Structures
1.
Amino acid sequence: MKPDPDKLLAIDKKHIWHPYSAMDSDLPIYPVESARGVRIKLVDGRDLIDGMSSWWCAIHGYNHPVMNAALTRQLDSMAHVMFGGLTHEPAVELAEKLVEITPEPMQSVFFADSGSVSVEVAMKMAIQYWNAKGQPNKQRLLTIHHGYHGDTFGAMSVTDPVNGMHSLFADTLAQQYFVDAPSCRFGEACSDNDIAPLRQQLETNNNKIAAVILEPIIQGAGGMRFYSAEYLRRVSELCSEHDVLLILDEIATGFGRSGKLFACLHADIAPDIMCIGKSLTGGYMSLAATLTTGEISRTISNGNPGVFMHGPTFMANPLACTAANTSIKLLLESPWQQNIANIEQGLLKGLAPCSQLESVKDVRVLGAIGVVELHHPVDMKTIQPMFVDEGVWIRPFGRLVYLMPPYIISDSDLATLTTAVYQVLSSL
Ligand SMILES: Cc1ncc(COP(=O)(O)O)c(C=O)c1O
């Protein structure tokens, strides 16, 4: 029997908190009945073309038969066992695959249950590493403005202080070092001026800094900014020069979204520690991983207290690992580079007319990400129903209306998405 949408909404409104929202909010919420391919079907019968991949995740679309079959098989053998003292094939297969496809120095894998947790883990790894090397003062992180690394306290401490509302949590939040984000855009050179603030911090405070943490090339939730690959390359060189580790948060960018399998490959560099998540499982369930080098994992393991201090209950959940193994196989066996290049062309062509609109400040595209930046924040109460009426699922935030569809989207569905963006923005 179909759920009654009014009843669902009434209970939802009464008891459930949605992401970054108020209880009992009057912003629209849409009950979903099912999702298949690039269509999200609402309980009221409407079909929406998905422009969001459920926040970077659903790269193969929804309800994929190969994913479903693999998960059903895994369910028949076990949904979960603890990872303390036990191991299993899905985790072993996944770790081996991740080591194979990530930059070569990545050799050791820690499975976490969400992106934010994998960032916490990365920060702890950096701190434990320096502690084991006899430098316990290196406990702080250096990063750039406009970053986003998650909502747990450690991750929040390296997220943009304004977007992350650091003032609300001032007495609890770890104090980290921030410098201006580079103004050199993707495809541009990086000048000495662009890199100067980060260089200065490293020169002055490297005895206190355990690691620099960055989203490589694409700053996501902090502004959908695409920055110069040369900047990233120079950051990597400066980190080596100043004995500071480089943590790259590829949680949003990993698995092809930027046109490369991992965004750090645009700069031809490898991090010391790397976080992946989101599309790792093709959007089926929550799983993340923190990878590091053999040298870092050995140093931590040989130092005091001789163990790495983290171990989540659902670590390496077999169902999630199976989803990841299947999703990676599907991705690597698909013409993903061609698919992303097609989407990039479709976004460039389809979003170009938006740059003529007075309300629009900038239009930018990289890989399977298209961004229309406005001069003023959107009013969600007005704009969200307009997109739904156009038959698309697009969820703007602040001044950003953006698209990052599943990689399997057809040219015509993509054109419907870009046309909807133009129609809605031009009628506001
Ligand atoms: C770059 C980046 N890091 C970390 C996170 C946090 O991941 P999660 O929401 O799975 O905790 C996100 C989520 O949007 C992200 O985009």
2.
Amino acid sequence: MNELSERFEPAEPVERPASDKLRCDACPVMCYIAEGRTGACDRYGNFGGRIVRCDPVTILNHAEEAGTPLVPFAEGQANAWDGNPVNTRRRFVSGVGAGTTYPDYKPAPFIVSQEVEGVDLVTVVTEGIFSYCGVKVKIDTDRHIGDETATVYAQGEPVGHVTTAEYGSQMLSLGGVRHLTGGSKAEGRVTCDTLLALCNRQPVELSIEGGSTVAVQAGAPPIIDGKVEHRMRVGCGSATIGMFATQWRGLVDEVVVVDDHITGVVSEHQAGKVLGWPDTGIKIIGRRSTPGRYFKVSEPGLAWGGTQLTDPLAILGPWNDRKGARPGLSLLMVSTTGEQYAYYELDENLRPVEKPFPERLRKSVELIEDNCEPALCTVLFMGGAGGSLRAGVTENPVNLTRSVHRLETYVTVGGAPVYVWPGGGITLMVDVTRLPENAFGYVPTPALVAPIEFTMRRDHYVALGGYESEIRTIEDVLERGGEYFNDRREVLAPRGNVWPLLAQLRRGAS
Ligand code: SF4
């Protein structure tokens, strides 16, 4: 007997012939599952002669947020109601473990009513099968990990590409329907595996065409070519000059902040001009944008400020004595994270010579380091709640879309707040670290399975064409569970994920 069948062995096992398989209809794969075994996705199994969802339904408890101590839920005590008509425990039935509605025309697995702060609410709870989905990955680093549009590989299969870099971060766009369904079978399977691992906050190794190998895990520092990235940059070179020019005034004659995108030079920069900084006759080899701001001083790389420079002097041309250069002139060169820095003085021939780093400048370099935030990987799941998923909420699915866009229906994924894109459909993004652990699943079609909940006023739900006769109380859900016979477990809601009503009220939808 395997571990799962032990967990779900019914009190009185049903005698069935060994060959008697049951068909799971929770996704298009329609597995035939033998007694005691699980189906292809491991989320459903045949236990005791019935199809069982193998993970418990997760009930999020917002007691801490409401200042009420959490009393752990125990099987059989779901109806221990204290007589208070207002729900102070603020339980929320999440889609984690809820089961799906495939083939969609039937109502969602749980449609739960609850009175919160005097308002009758309904939450429609399901696990959506997302064939159209992917992740956006933000990697906090200045280092060049690959060209924009370069293909990203996992286990040797293409799973996405490098997209537009953001402020202090490199960005990847992974997954999407074309990698899931439009390539080889292996590409689809590996893409699905990669998305699932990232969404469940597991580490994944990605290699970028013509670039680096990056180990990515949501909420953890990136590891680039085997090296842990500790800090993201304080800003671009120009911004760094702007922030710290006053710290350097009077301590050094010139400062260059080396950056792959915008290298800053304090004597030419507006921040220096405002402080009356004298000219130094410096010459930067790069494309001058505006005074004291230079583009393309080097090719992108893994060295100083995300450039290929191991010797920052390589970006300096001859010094001009008619514009202020003189023997003994002091120069600080520093990267945008403060990790690399060096001090020079011009010799008799106006050539910079490296000198021991002076104590008087150490504080300013440390200040750059102190202002750098920890480098992290951020993973946002992005998916479209399609026409069929919406049919589990209402008989007229477009009503749900309109309601979401009018902010009358609040969408959550595993209880976490989402961003819904404007325009057509319900295309959403969610930070995977705000969901309960292992909230995502998959089906081998291939597609990801993600919990999703729609919360709205009860009268609004009825007006939308919702399945009024399927509405149940939360106590009933806790006691009797759902059609997939799984347990219920109650966990503390992650901090910062407010009960949906609070957000609704703030939007004036009540
Ligand atoms: S893959 Fe999973 S959900 Fe789909 S039919 Fe098989 S067991 Fe059921």
